[in-house]
Write a structure and sequence with these properties.
The complex is a heterodimer of chains A (about 325) and B (about 290). Chain A is mostly helical and about 325 residues long. Chain A contains 16 helices and two strands. Chain A has a domain of about 210 residues. In chain A, about 80% of the residues lie in helices and about 0% in strands. In chain A, helix 3 runs antiparallel to helix 4. Chain B has one domain: ABC transporter involved in vitamin B12 uptake, BtuC (Orthogonal Bundle). Chain B contains eleven helices and two strands. Chain B has a two-stranded antiparallel sheet with strand order 1-2. In chain B, helix 2 crosses helix 9. The longest helix of chain B has about 30 residues. Chain B is globular. The chains are: A mainly alpha (about 325), B mainly alpha (about 290). At the A-B interface, helix 5, helix 12 and helix 14 of A face helix 4, helix 9 and helix 11 of B.
Chain lengths: ~325, ~290
Amino acid sequence: MKRAHLLLGAAALVVSLLVPLVVQSDYILQVLFRIYLFAALGLAWNLVGGYAGQLSLGHAAYFGAGAYGLALFTRAGLPVWLALVLLIAVALLFALLIGGVSFRLRGPYFALATIAFAEVLHAAAKNLPRVTGGDVGVPVPALFASHVHRSFYFCAVLLTAAAAWATVAISRSRFGYQLMAIREDQDTALSVGIHAARTKLNALLVSSVFTALGGALYASLFLFIVPDQVLSIDLSNEIAIVAMLGGAGTVLGPLVGSAVLETAAELFKNEFQEAHLLIYGILLVVVVLFLPEGIVGGAAALLRRRGAKGGWRAASE
Amino acid sequence: MDLFAALQAVVNGILTGALYALVGMAMALIFGVMRIVNFAHGAFLMLGMYAAYELFLHAGVNPYYGFPLVGLGMFVLGYSCYQGLLRPIHGRSDFMQILLTLGIGLALTDGVQLVFGADYHQINLPLLEKNLHFGSHITVNAPWLVSFAIALAAGGGLYFFVMHTMMGRAARAIAQNRNAAPLMGIHLHRVQAFCFGLGVAVAAVAGSLLLPVFYLYPGVGDQFTLKAFVMVVLGGMESIVGAALAGLVLGVVESLTSLYWGNEWALALDFVLFLLVLSLRPGGIFGSQRA
C-alpha cells in the first residue's frame, strides 16, 4: 500500500518534471508555475489549517517575509544562498511571534489575530520606504539567468514535492496524530497530555518555511515586489481557499484545489479583468455549503458510498 | 498652535468615531451577541454606500434623507442572507462561518466591481461647502455634524432595540445560552435572522452616511470589517455600548495618529491595539468578562 503511494508520487513528480519537454509556451509554463506554487503554499497552510484545524488568514506574513527577505538581504550585498537561509530564519521568527500570541486564542480570535499580524507587517512594508522601498517597491534579483520560465517551473514543482513529502511524513507521525487530535477536540487532546500550544507552533514553523520559500520564488520570477502584492489579505485568503477548495487535511487536497482555482482564475482573468476575485468568493460559498470537505473529501465520500475504497484517503486519515 | 491642532484632531476623531461606532455596534449585535463571525460586514457597508449613491444619482435622493430606504433594503438582504446561506451551516464550526462570510464578502465586493467598475466616485452636496467655526481655531464641516446626529440617533435606537424590546431580549437570551433559549419558546433562527438583518442594515446606514465624505469604490468596506472586529473586541464582546465607545476611541486614536505619524499608520495602530487587548485583557477595555 505504502509502496504504491510512493511509486505514484514519484511517477507524478517525474511526469511534472518532463512537462517542459512538451510545453514550449512561456505563458502556459507561467500558469503551471502558479498552479504548483499555490499547491505548495496550500500544502504548507494545510499543516496548520487542515491538520491542526487552526484557521490562519495571515499566511501572507510568511510569504512576504520570503519575498522581502530575498530582495533586502541580496540588496545588502549578501549572496543568494545566505539570503535564503536568513529569510527562512526571519519567517521562523515571525511564526514564533505570531504563533506565540495567537495560539493562545481560539476560534475567530485566532483567525483575527493572524490577520492583524499580517496587516501590521503590510503597513510596515508600506510605510518604511527607507527599508522596504515603501509603496514604490523594491527590485528582486533573478535566480536564473537563462531558461527563466522553465527553471522557475522546476523550482515550483520541487517545492511542491517537498511540501507534499513533508505532509505525508507528518500525517503519519506521532506529531501528525497530535495535530489531528487538537483539531478534533483541543480539550480532550490536552487531557491526554498533548502540549497543544507547542504542537501547533511546530506545525506553524514548518508551514512558515515552505511559505517563505514560495514567496522568495514568486518574488524572483517577477523581479519586483510591492507590499500590496506580497503582503495583502487577498493573498492570505487565496492560500486558504486553495486548501479548503481541494480538501483541508488531505495530501491531495491543496494540489487539486490549486489546479482548479488557478485555472479558473486564469480563465476568469481574461474574461473579467479586474473582478477575478468574484470566482474565489463564489467557490468559497459553494464549498462551505455543498462540499465542506473539499473536492477530494467529497469525492472520497462519494467513492465510499459507491462501495469502492478510496485508497489515497487512507494516507491522510 | 500645536494644542489647537491636537484639539481639532480630537474633534475630527469624535465625528469620524461616531460613524465607526455605528459600524461597531452593528458588529457587536451580529458577532458579539449572535456569535456570527461576519467577515462580510464591510462588504454590506459598501453595498449600502453604492445603494445610497445610485439613489442619489438616479432619483436625486440626498443620502441624509435616503438612509432609511437603504437600511430597509439591506435589512431584507441581510435577513435572506441568513436564512439562505448562514442557517444551513448553523451548528458547524466558526471556521466554516468565517470562510462562508469571507466568500460572501469577496463575491459582493467583486460583483459590485464587475457591475459598477473599479472607479472612484464622489457626490456633491451643497452642504459640503458649509463649515462651522467654533472659536477661532476649531472648524467643523457641516455634513459631519449631520452624520454625527443621525449616527447618535441610530445608535440609540439599536441600543433600545437590544435592551428593551422582546426581540432584543430574545437575542440576549440566545447569547447567554443558545441551547436553553429555544426551550423557553424563542424561535432561534427567526431571532438570529432578524438580528443579522438589523446589523447589516445598520452597517449600510453607516455606509450611506459615509457617502458624502468618503470616496466610493468596491473595496471601501474592507477596512471596516477589520475595524468592526477590533471595536467589538475592545468593547468587550457582548456590550453594544462598549463597541460604541471603542468606535469613538478608535476615531480619536486614528485622527491623532494621522496628525503626528501620518495616515498610513492609523490602521496598523488599530491592529496593535487589538493584539494588545486580545493578549492582555481579553474581556475588552470596557467589558467585564467574555462569555
